[in-house]
Amino acid sequence: MSKTVKHSLQLLLIISGFFASFSLLAHGVDDATKQFLEANQGAAIFPFIYIGAKHMLTGYDHLLFLVGVVFFLFRSKDVLLYVSLFTLGHSLTLLYGVFSNIEINPYIIDAIIGLSVVYKGFDNLGGFKRVFNYQPNTKIAVTIFGLFHGFGLATKIQEFQLPSNGLISNIISFNIGVEIGQFLALGLVLIILNFWRRHSSYLNFATVTNTALMSAGFMLIGLQLTGYFIN
Questions:
Q1: Which DSSP category does 86 fall into?
Q2: Domain tally for the chain?
Q3: In terms of residue numbers, what domain contains 183?
Q4: For residue 103, which of 50, 74, 158, 195 sits 20 to 30 Å off, Cα-Cα?
């Protein structure tokens, strides 16, 4: 067995264990946050900023998509552009989804988020060119998937039927927290990637890494669709 295959299997096993450990949290929040959201009345700006940041930092589906987005972006202005498009997308639908009371089945929306991870890994592998002889507009795709990620965030908030008193400030605070969490997570990801890019193994294992990213996306899709049909 070659070293590349061994590394691929090890990476896939790690990802499988990761998702097995977190599968029970796929549609919920921790008990402390749940109790706060259910009991809260009125504006609570800083708690909602904290909850938003924590949700993004522990939202492995959002983070995996971001890893795929920035994996082959080597210039700071490109990272800023793509992350801004993603941020614009999920901010719009988070706010619109909550304020317009648009309810989407959480399992379906999270399956689509899993699909976004598959898409980005496949795109990074040059799959569209090889298989379909066509390259989708990556900027448009990132923005569109950002919209779905925002609806995913909105469904989490809507589960708790927050009171109208202070709702606007709380949701805006939650969105600010999401952006703070995204900034912190992305900063860590970029530090790791920039360190890895100094070594030849970065490009050598690009195929393995993005194949693992696709596998993680398929696991997410399978997890959410299973939950949809069971529940």
A1: H
A2: 1
A3: 44-230
A4: 50
Instruction: For residue 196, tell me if it sits in a domain.
Output: yes
In a domain, 223, yes or no: yes
Q: 71 falls in which pLDDT band (50, 70, 90)?
A: very high
Phi, psi angles (nearest 5°) of residue 135: -115, 110
**Residue 16 covered by a domain:** no
Evaluate whether residue 116 is within a structural domain.
Answer: yes
The secondary structure of 88-111 as a DSSP string is HHHHHHHHHHHHTT----HHHHHH
Distance CA(179)–CA(121), nearest Å, equals 23
Q: Is 8 helix (H, G, I), strand (E, B) or coil?
A: helix
- Identify how many contiguous H helices and E strands the chain contains and give both numbers: 11, 0
Amino acid identity of residue 17, one-letter, is: G
Q: Considering the entire predicted model, what is its pTM?
A: 0.82
Q: Assign 210 to helix, strand or coil.
A: helix
